[in-house]
Design goal:
With about 240 residues, this protein is of the alpha/beta class. It is built from ten helices and five strands. α1 (about 1-20) packs antiparallel against α4.
Length: about 240
Amino acid sequence: MARALKTMRAGMGYFRYLAELPPSTGGQYLGCGAPPPAVSFWDMGPSHVATKRVTAAGIVRVAPGRARDGSAVVTLTLSDEFLAAWETMPIGLFTLSVDKCLELASLDALSQLYGLTVILDMRRASLRLMTVSARPDLLRMTEKRVSVLTGKSGFRVVGLWLLGAPWYARVLVNTVRTLLPEKIRQRLHVAPNPEALLEAVNAAILPVSCGGGTDPSIGLDECLRRLRDTAVGPTRVERA
């Protein structure tokens, strides 16, 4: 409960900032007519249209099980699906929906105790996506996001894996790395291929795109249910 309250206090300003971002932020909102009304982070859930959008597109995937150290596992796939989503929804709402998935994965008691393992799958990150992501307004949003999700909030990131970052993404990766607290930089791992992830995560719960065995048709609700039902056994592996 204390961690949840800490998350709420730390996140309120950040989530308000995202909700109030103009639709043009990110330079990709091309929707017709008026933008959708602002949405409160606390009103969102697995059934919200924005949350469904990012999970159905495979942008965010909550693993239906736990990493070897007991943490919940969330995979973010960086691809042109980001750009496609930004064409139909404001960047603030998009980011809120991604963060909501992180929150949903961290809410149960074991995830509160053992934290989150986040995998950034960059193998399909295009040069165009990296160029847009390096805009000053998006870098400022990233800085705010990093501060909340890794510094002051209750989201305890115990492992951050960068999978298959292409050469043209290294400048952005190095920029973001400078925004990370020292404690998180020590938990940053570079995985050249999906096989390297097996050090931390059993293949059975990884997405198929990462060489795993999770059926992509399993929805967010079912993944969260299986996560909650997964116990941490005596063979739990501690990570530095």
